[in-house]
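Morning. Coffee machine broken again, so started the prediction first thing and wrote up yesterday's gels while waiting. Chain of 386 residues, entered below exactly as on the submission form.
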Amino acid sequence: MMAIYLIALMCALLHAGYGGSRVVLALYALNLGADQFTIGTIMALKALCPTLLALYAGKLVDRVGPRLPMLWGSVGSGFALALPYFFPGLSVLYVSVVILGTSFQFFFVAVQGTTGALGGPEDRARNYSIIAIGFSLAAFLGPLIAGFSIDYLGYLPAYLVLAATTVIPIVLLWMKPEVLPKAAAGVAGVEPRKSAFDLLHNAKLRNTFIASGLISTAWDLYLFYFPIYGNAIGLSASVIGMISAVYAIAVFVIRVALPGITRRWGEYAILVYAIAVAGVAFLLFPWFENPYLLACVSFLLGLGLGCGQPLSMSLIYSLAPRGRASESAGMRVTFNNFTHMVVPLTFGGIGTVLGFAPVFMFGASLLLAGSYYGYRNERAAFQRAP
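Came back before lunch.
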């Protein structure tokens, strides 16, 4: 099925620009004299509009299909990434991240609903694994592109390089509408339409949203805070990019193995243990400054967090009411983007006042507590089963 691979290619390219922008933003803002809390505020703005609009985006995709939201998202992302090159300075970063965050989430919500609709139920786990592999390749390429572009070209040209990653998705979506088959366009005419928050009445769906939010918290904390930590201990932008790429390699490895793992253990159980592994990795970070050891811890973290995205997307699609798959994906994005706002502000403030170690320790505590909560729920459900 060629469509799923073309969608994965678009995801990899667009997300490489989106993910790489975190590295460039953090290091460029530091270069301009911004403190951790200011950087955290800018990062939080990236999630503000997506938090408010994700549910609308999901309903829009269910109604009109994925192509137009994905095209708008790609064009908006390219525009946002190019802005700092043409208008240098700290103030433009506030505008750029709002446009980038909003645009990318229209693309991302559409992809989640589209992926589940391709093929039959038996193809769903494979499809989400392929998409997740595309995102993991992006997580590998984005920091590398950003780090080396900064070291060899400078901060502003690095933004232009990242903007170039949106060109192929825009061309494909504009010139090749058949990339997205009609089967992915959602279910029309499913009425009456209930409130989106009615989705939270489903306990399994609600717990999956919470688990997805925890994974997103950990992912955000690493991508936001590790460049700041690396800069503080004297690592170059290239080294920071390479360590982040090691994290992405681990994400790729676990996602390749994920279909086989899920056949042996349940999806929800893997999600719970993955959160625990991520918590352990965060406990280790502040103890190391050696780049090789930091790369090892990053690899461990990648193994834990790499499971989260495909498993939560697959679970949410399978648990969503008929005709509301993209709306449910929008609810997941709303949960995740709430963490995107809270994490930079909270941990940027903690880091400014207390230093690096409390940031990692607080993040680890949150993840381990969440994993234990999920484990108790899973065990209780098992005991209630006949």
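Confidence is low (pLDDT under 50) at residues 183-192, 381-386. Going to sketch it on the whiteboard this afternoon.
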